[in-house]
Design brief:
With 79 residues, the chain is mainly α. It has 4 helices and no strands. It has helices spanning 5-22, 27-34, 38-45, 53-63. The longest helix is centred in the N-terminal third of the chain and has 18 residues, at 5-22. The mean pLDDT is 94.
Length: 79
């Protein structure tokens, strides 16, 4: 089954935003934890930024989760 990479990026971005909010972090706080600019994090959460494995691990570590959890569909897309 073929997957659309753009759809996957949007799903991961939503999941990151969802988990950030669950942990009570603002975008500014989370971007700082990751060592990135606010704009870069906003592009990630909007699904407009391609992500490397290193970036995914950094995002997960800042949330104190395993990177694999970022691939779970966000609540807004679950049936």
């Amino acid at each position: 089954m073929a997957e659309d990479p753009e759809k996957t990026l949007r799903s991961i971005g939503r999941r990151i935003a969802e988990m950030r909010v669950e942990r009570g972090l603002t975008q500014e706080e989370y971007a700082e934890r990751c060592g990135w600019s606010l704009k870069y994090l906003q592009r990630i959460e909007a699904g407009r930024q391609n992500l490397s494995v290193r970036s995914l691990v950094k995002l997960a570590n800042a949330l104190r989760i395993r990177a694999a959890e970022l691939f779970v569909a966000p609540a807004s897309l679950r049936s």
